[in-house]
Automatic annotation (TrEMBL):
Its main location: cytoplasm. It is found in: Cytoplasm. Residues 41-176 form the UDP-N-acetylenolpyruvoylglucosamine reductase C-terminal domain. Cell wall formation. InterPro entries: MurB, MurB_C, MurB_C_sf. SUPFAM superfamilies: Uridine diphospho-N-Acetylenolpyruvylglucosamine reductase, MurB, C-terminal domain. Keywords: Cell cycle, Cell division, Cell shape, Cell wall biogenesis/degradation, Cytoplasm, FAD, Flavoprotein, NADP, Oxidoreductase, Peptidoglycan synthesis. It comes from Mobilicoccus caccae. This is UDP-N-acetylenolpyruvoylglucosamine reductase. The active site is at S67 (proton donor), E172. It catalyses: UDP-N-acetyl-alpha-D-muramate + NADP(+) = UDP-N-acetyl-3-O-(1-carboxyvinyl)-alpha-D-glucosamine + NADPH + H(+). Its EC number is 1.3.1.98. Signal peptide: none annotated. Its cofactor is FAD.
Amino acid sequence: MVLDVLFQLELADLARPVAYADLATGLGVDLGTRVPLADAREAVLEQRRRRGMVLQEDDHDTWSCGSFFTNPILSADDFDTLARRVRETTDADLVPPRFAAGDGMVKTSAAWLIDKAGFGKGYGLPGPAALSTKHVLAVTNRGEARAQDVVDLAREVRDGVQERFGIRLVNEPVLVGLEL
């Protein structure tokens, strides 16, 4: 529970340098470019809308807490083990996404792991909780879900990814009174 927040804002006409590749593509700029704040805001909202992460009353894909799992950060050796396991359990040409995470660490995509482990968009439908039909990282309430339904689905996905690829996903939302 958040009881107090302090923000320090910077007056500026330009956003911070664009550091996210999809955002740079959506804005038509190179990484590191500064763009007008209004342009950055609209581009971020557009990306979020496409993924069902801007609340809309009539769209159950938006009835979520956003991305449920964080992207795993692995040692280089652990990433190599993951890549080998992916080759052994899926199409031999499939390679997990790899992003530098500093200090020799590697970040990979939780959404990619979820999808390749067999939990595609809409997994869980027609149940009360399901993965979004727009983005597999969002565990959604289809209208009648209880917290336990959401946790049960998230646990199934987390355990399925671990069984398939040996990677244990970590939930991003803090659960109160429930455990994954």
